[in-house]
């Protein structure tokens, strides 16, 4: 079947099998390998992308379901060579160790801060509760999101 | 890498179109919405539909509204929508309690109320919560629409009364004043299925329980409900002893499965404790401290 998906603002038209999952479509068809595939069972959250502005686990969404829709992946976060505040926070606070969960964490963190610019630690932990990290123990990820929130609000984020 | 077997894909644009497609494929088509139950099953070949009929674009299946003394929850309402709806939380706190502990925030963005109920997983939370509330299911077929009490909706594990040519349109919950509700769940870790979960709804006239609903999930209760405990409570005055006895009766009449989440005697103990505590919380929320 033919599908047309807008990914990070760019329209892509591809012929696919209906059984192709969105995560594989992004990685294999569009070579956008920033989105990771971890468990492939909608548990780990490494594959989180936005579908029409809402974070979803793309291993459990058919690419066909994204036909005519907008997808946003981790590749869209940096703009004009400048990292998004959540990316800067992950660097400053050592929020990424092996980095496997990071793309999903970043996409959820960005979504959280768009809805709640000043989230409590509890709110951050709740937001990422569907995502697994096997390195950090989550402490540095939570700090990274807090860092982004604080610096974004004060507009102190530099490249 | 896990990929489903091959299938054909159709996108329905209306309820009538979805029903027409179900008829066209004559039992070979499966509806898909959030897909968070069906896609994992297809990856494991536990399900192998020849055709998937995507109903995500059927706007008439969405939305939460209050009509004629009923709360109506469209089958396509995402868990997040139900969780975030303040009117729902005010009318039926049991639903917000339950939604808070269903999977995780990202899964809740995608999974639907209708899909959860139609999956009829014996460990599913909303099936118990809506059964406690004595909700009705609106089921649409090619010729007729029928309204089925949710307590008659479940045939058994993973099986409902929805026929191959039908789809669930919405759930309707009668709104009654003078009561409240609560949902409690024990799980091993965040986002996991219940070891055991209980939803309770009570309506009071002073101290007297005029109506009550008790739903159990993952605890081996027939049709997700504890009818014997409900019958015991109706007409009695609220007290710690009475609510404790209701828990004991509910535990006696359920048949918890033995699995990796625990042995039957532990789960039966959970059933008793959770039924009593959920009733206490519902009574407290209705203004009657126990």
Strand order of the largest sheet of chain A: 2-1-5-3-4
Domain count of chain B: the total is: 3
How many domains in all of chain A?
A: 2
Characterize the main sheet of chain B.
5 strands, antiparallel
Structure annotation, total helices of chain A: 5
Could you explain how this protein is built, in words?
The complex is a heterodimer of chains A (159) and B (290). With 159 residues, chain A is α+β, with helices and mostly antiparallel strands. Chain A folds into two domains: 2-74, Roll (Ubiquitin-like (UB roll)), CATH 3.10.20.30; 85-153, [2Fe-2S]-binding domain (DNA polymerase, domain 1, Orthogonal Bundle). Chain A contains five helices and five strands, in the order E-E-H-E-E-E-H-H-H-H. In chain A, a hairpin with a 2-residue loop joins strand 1 (2-7) and strand 2. Chain A is globular and about 45 Å long. The model of chain A has no long low-confidence stretch (mean pLDDT 96). Chain B has three domains: 8-54, Uridine Diphospho-n-acetylenolpyruvylglucosamine Reductase, domain 2 (2-Layer Sandwich); 60-174, Uridine Diphospho-n-acetylenolpyruvylglucosamine Reductase, domain 3, CATH 3.30.465.10; 179-285, CO dehydrogenase flavoprotein, C-terminal domain (Enolase-like, domain 1, 2-Layer Sandwich), CATH 3.30.390. In chain B, 35% of the residues lie in helices and 26% in strands. Chain B has helices at residues 15-25, 38-43, 79-84, 86-91, 93-100, 105-110, 113-119, 125-132, 227-233, 240-253, 264-285, and strands spanning 8-11, 29-32, 51-54, 64-67, 70-74, 136-140, 145-149, 154-156, 159-160, 167-174, 179-187, 194-205, 208-217. In chain B, a hairpin with a 2-residue loop joins strand 4 and strand 5. Chain B is globular and about 55 Å long. The mean pLDDT of chain B is 97. The chains are: A alpha+beta (159), B alpha+beta (290). Chains A and B meet through strand 4 of A and strand 1, helix 2 and helix 6 of B.
């Amino acid at each position: 079947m033919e599908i047309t998906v807008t990914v990070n603002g760019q329209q892509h038209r591809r012929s696919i099998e209906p059984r192709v999952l969105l995560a594989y479509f992004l990685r294999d068809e569009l070579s956008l390998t920033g989105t990771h595939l971890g468990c492939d069972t909608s548990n780990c959250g490494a594959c989180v992308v936005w579908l029409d502005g809402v974070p979803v686990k793309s291993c459990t969404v058919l690419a066909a379901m994204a036909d005519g829709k907008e997808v946003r992946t981790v590749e869209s976060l940096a703009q004009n060579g400048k990292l998004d505040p959540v990316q800067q926070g992950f660097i400053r606070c050592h929020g990424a160790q092996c980095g496997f969960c990071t793309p999903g964490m970043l996409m959820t963190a960005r979504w959280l801060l768009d809805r709640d610019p000043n989230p409590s630690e509890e709110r951050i932990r709740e937001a990422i509760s569907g995502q697994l990290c096997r390195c950090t123990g989550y402490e540095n990820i939570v700090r990274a999101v807090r860092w982004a929130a604080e610096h974004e609000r004060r507009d102190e984020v530099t490249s | 890498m896990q990929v489903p077997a091959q299938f054909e894909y159709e996108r329905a644009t209306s309820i009538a179109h979805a029903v027409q497609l179900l008829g066209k494929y004559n039992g070979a088509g499966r509806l898909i919405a959030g897909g968070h139950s069906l896609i994992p099953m297809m990856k494991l070949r536990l399900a192998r539909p020849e055709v998937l009929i995507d109903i995500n674009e059927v706007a008439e299946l969405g939305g939460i509204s209050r009509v004629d003394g009923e709360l109506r929850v469209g089958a396509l309402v995402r868990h997040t929508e139900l969780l975030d709806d303040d009117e729902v939380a005010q009318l039926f706190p049991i639903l917000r309690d339950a939604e808070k502990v269903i999977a995780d925030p990202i899964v809740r963005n995608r999974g639907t109320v209708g899909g959860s109920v139609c999956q009829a997983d014996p460990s599913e939370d909303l099936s118990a919560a809506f059964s406690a509330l004595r909700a009705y299911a609106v089921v649409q077929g090619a010729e007729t629409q029928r309204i089925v009490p949710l307590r008659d909706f479940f045939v058994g594990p993973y099986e409902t009364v929805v026929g191959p040519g039908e789809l669930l349109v919405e759930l309707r919950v009668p709104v009654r004043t003078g009561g409240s509700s609560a949902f409690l769940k024990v799980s091993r870790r965040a986002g996991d299925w219940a070891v055991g979960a209980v939803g309770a709804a009570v309506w009071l006239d002073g101290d007297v329980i005029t109506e009550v609903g008790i739903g159990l999930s993952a605890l081996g209760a027939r049709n997700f409900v504890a009818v014997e405990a409900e019958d015991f409570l109706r007409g009695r005055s609220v007290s710690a002893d009475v609510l404790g006895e209701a828990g004991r009766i509910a535990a006696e009449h359920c048949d918890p499965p033995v699995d990796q989440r625990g042995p039957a005697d532990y789960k039966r103990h959970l059933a008793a404790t959770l039924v009593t505590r959920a009733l206490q919380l519902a009574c407290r929320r209705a203004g009657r401290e126990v």
